[in-house]
Amino acid sequence: MTATDPALTALAQGWCALSLLHGRIEARIERELQRRHGLSVRAYSLLDVLSRQHDGVGGHLQMKQVANAVVLSQSATTRLVTRLEDRGLLSRYLCPTDRRGIYTNVSDTGMELLDRARPTNDGALRAALDEAAEDPELAPLVRAVESLRTAA
Predict the structure, then answer these.
(1) From CA 136, how far away is CA 59, in angstroms rounded?
(2) Furthest CA-CA distance within the chain
(3) Do the beta carbons of residue 37 and residue 113 sit within 8 Å?
(4) Which of 12, 8, 5, 24 is nearest to 129 (CA)?
(5) What pLDDT is attached to residue 3?
(6) DSSP line for 31-49
(7) Taking the model in full, what pTM does it have?
(8) Which backbone phi and psi does 105 adopt, to 5 degrees?
(9) Are the C-beta atoms of residues 25 and 128 closer than 8 Å to each other?
């Protein structure tokens, strides 16, 4: 392949469209979550991921797993956990079977905030997708996202 290869150009254009769609969605959700709940998209995502933990085998996530789920580095995830813990939205405790492990749970206050923020997140996502569907370049990606949602 060369830099002028049509397949490479199409691939690059597809990536640009996907990046544009992601940016628009994230910006819309960020504005609404910040305005209504004082949460960033990353903080919301972290609370959401941690809220889905359970007490069964493999039910609690290690920090590396949390970082992967919210698409942050481990150090950035740890800083975010600390900020949310300082706000009383999370609590950390030692793993009962491995004293080196530290788990993080969403506090009752964090769950209440997450429950209030979920409709905001979902509404902003829907609005961003509806708006993007009007753009001929982004419409196929919107359909792809919606079909994944339906299949899940």
Answers:
(1) 42
(2) 58
(3) yes
(4) 24
(5) 58
(6) HHHHHHHS--HHHHHHHHH
(7) 0.86
(8) -120, 150
(9) yes
129 Cβ neighbours under 8 A, 6+ residues apart: 25, 142, 145, 146
Contact between residue 86 and residue 110 where contact means Cβ atoms under 8 Å apart:
no
Write out pLDDT tens, residues 36-86. 999 999 999 999 999 998 777 767 888 888 999 999 999 999 999 999 999
Q: CA 6, 12, 17, 22: dihedral to nearest 10 degrees?
A: 160
| C-beta atoms surrounding 44 within 10 Å | 22
Neighbour count for residue 86 (Cβ, 10 Å): 9
Rounded CA gap, 77 and 85, in Å?
Answer: 12
pLDDT for 125 equals: 97
DSSP 3-state of 2:
coil
